[in-house]
Design a protein that fits this description.
single chain; about 100 residues; mainly alpha; two-stranded antiparallel sheet; 2 helices
């Protein structure tokens, strides 16, 4: 069998490989792999395992969303109290 050169159908998966392509867009087979279908295009990507828990990842990476909302509410209340004290002080001094 002669070596495959695009354009044509990928010998590994049968998808069309366009002229000038270095590898099949569908299965990842290429001249380096000998156009075999046992290539794994995901090698080296460090993808998570199948039991990946997205919610747990978000909590570990960004913290609990409720905690940040509690902090924002606290600082808003502090700002409102300080503003109230300042306005009250201004009104008392204006008399």
């Amino acid at each position: 069998m002669a070596a495959f050169k695009p354009p044509g159908q990928c010998p590994a998966c049968g998808e069309w490989v366009t002229r000038g392509s270095a590898a099949c867009d569908d299965c990842g087979a290429c001249a380096k792999s000998g156009w075999k279908s046992d290539t794994n295009i995901y090698d080296g990507l460090d993808l998570p395992d199948e039991d990946f828990d997205y919610d747990d990842f978000i909590n570990r990476e960004f913290g609990r969303p409720a905690a940040s909302m509690d902090r924002r509410l606290f600082w808003r209340i502090v700002a409102a109290v300080l503003l109230g004290v300042m306005v009250l002080g201004y009104l008392m001094s204006a008399k």
